Amino acid sequence: MSVPVVIVSGLYPAVRSALVDRLLAEHPGSVAVHHDLREVTTGRVERVVRDAAGVLDLHEVRLAHGCVTCTVREDLIPELLSRMGSAPLLIAELWDSVEPRAVAEALAWHEDTVHALRLTGVLTALDAERVTADICCGERLAQHGKLAAAGDERYLAEVLARQIEYATAIVVSGEEEEDVELARALLGHLAPTTPTDVLGTALPSVTGTGIDVEMLGARVDPATAQLPCDAQTEEISTVVWHRLRPLHPQRLFDAVDELVTETVRSRGRFWLANRHERLLAWDAVAGIVSVEDTGPWLAALPEAAWEMASPARRMAATLDWSPPLGDRVQHLVFTGPDLDRNRILSLLDFCLLTEEKALAGSDLWAGYQDPFASVLDLKETPA
Predict the structure, then answer these.
(1) List of long-range contacts for 181-184, beta carbons under 8 Å, 24+ apart
(2) What is the chain's Cα-based Rg?
(3) Does any domain span residue 65?
(4) Which of 185, 218, 251 is the last residue in one of the domains?
(5) Is 98 helix (H, G, I), strand (E, B) or coil?
(6) DSSP per-residue letters across 28-61
(7) Are residues 197 and 286 in the same domain?
(8) How many structural domains compose the chain?
(9) Rounded Cα gap, residues 290 and 302, in angstroms
(10) 191 plus 270 within the same structural domain
(11) Is residue 64 part of a domain?
(12) DSSP string for 200-260
């Protein structure tokens, strides 16, 4: 029978470690494996293995390429497999800025773990006192000493958002009840379908059936993401913009700064008139925005190509389907403090083509200047 494995992620070492301690105490004989990546840029990683009684093993790992992928493949997976014979639960405690998705997929799909280990959960540990400020932090990881690899250019808030949104459960810790309640209110907007518990109360079950990693990824992938709904919780707002008409590229480009600086978190899928065959992803946090081409809309593909799409992709397309546009849709969600809902909706509606121009068709749209081209048309060049 396979051994359960739970991933514990989080930017906050003290809270994350406390959650691991709880899991070790509640599951006697369990083992936690943690890789300290503070010196990963030099190719050096320190592996710490512990149980409820303390540290079992401390070992320096040298990697040919200092990165999270190498750490998981070359050391985490072999270490977990070596410990599975005597442990009723294995815990993979991730370094501060490691995003759990890559680790979850590696554990679930590696040829040596498919039958030996089963991933039962991805828990994210949060410090209630800091999370509401950090989700607004526009600084890079390097400024906080939390690089996960050489050349890591990610932002603190970007990593935090992904740790929150990918988790199967979130555990919050805080000394002040006001901080905890504010953190839980924020999480209710960012990840409304994810269970949230307070450290010190009952924890999520981590020894049951395995989770479906493919479906977990589909929850956050732009084409299939389960986006939050309109909501208002005291001072926090979530505004959903859902339309069908195409967007004018220049008008949207001119509105980007205002949209991302007045909101804390926004994401979704959209289409530009001059790129009517391409599903574009919008991802913004703490004032930093990313716009990415994720591939064609299913409506732009031959019907036979639907069979090659994942069930989640086909389901999302079916739910969004409206003739003659197919699955093309404008679906963006914005979260922040006391958002001016009418202003955001009006600003985005202004970016749409008029009904007359929308009916004119793609021959007219192709002539629009596209300020997004410098981002969307980037091609990889040989090193």
Answers:
(1) 182/128, 182/132, 183/126, 183/128, 183/131, 183/132
(2) 22
(3) yes
(4) 218
(5) coil
(6) TT-EEEEEE-TTGGGTEEEEEEEETTEEEEEEEE
(7) no
(8) 2
(9) 29
(10) no
(11) yes
(12) TBPPPP-SSSPP-HHHHHHTTSTTT--PPPPEEETTEEEEEEEE-SPBPHHHHHHHHHHHH
Domain span at residue 133 reads: 3-218
Q: How confident is the model at residue 200 (pLDDT cuts 50, 70, 90)?
A: confident
- In tens, the pLDDT along 10-56 reads 999 999 999 999 999 999 999 999 999 888 888 788 999 999 999 99
On whether both 268 and 174 belong to a single domain, the answer is: no
Q: Mind giving me the DSSP string for 269-282?
A: EE-BGGGTTEEEEE
Residue 223 lies in a domain: no
For residues 192 and 61, state if they share a domain: yes
CATH of the domain at 272: 3.30.1220.10
DSSP 339-372: --HHHHHHHHHHHBPPHHHHHH-HHHHTTS--TT
Cis peptide before 371 (omega within 30 of 0): no
pLDDT per residue as tens digits for the range 105-119: 999 999 999 999 999
- Mark whether 280 and 336 lie in a shared domain: yes
Helix (H, G, I), strand (E, B) or coil at 171: strand
Query: CA 191, CA 193: separation in Å to the nearest integer?
Result: 6
Alpha carbons 130 and 12: distance in angstroms, whole number: 9
pTM beyond 0.85, yes or no: yes
CB 128 within 8 A of CB 183: yes
d(CA 116, CA 323): 47
- Greatest distance between any 2 Cα atoms in the chain: 71
Asked if residues 244 and 330 have their Cβ atoms less than 8 Å apart, the reply is yes
CB 108 within 8 A of CB 4: no
Range list of β-strands (E), 41-116: 44-51, 54-62, 90-93
Token couple for 213 = 């990693």
Taking only the tens place, the pLDDT of each residue in 154-185 is 999 999 999 999 999 999 999 999 999 999 99
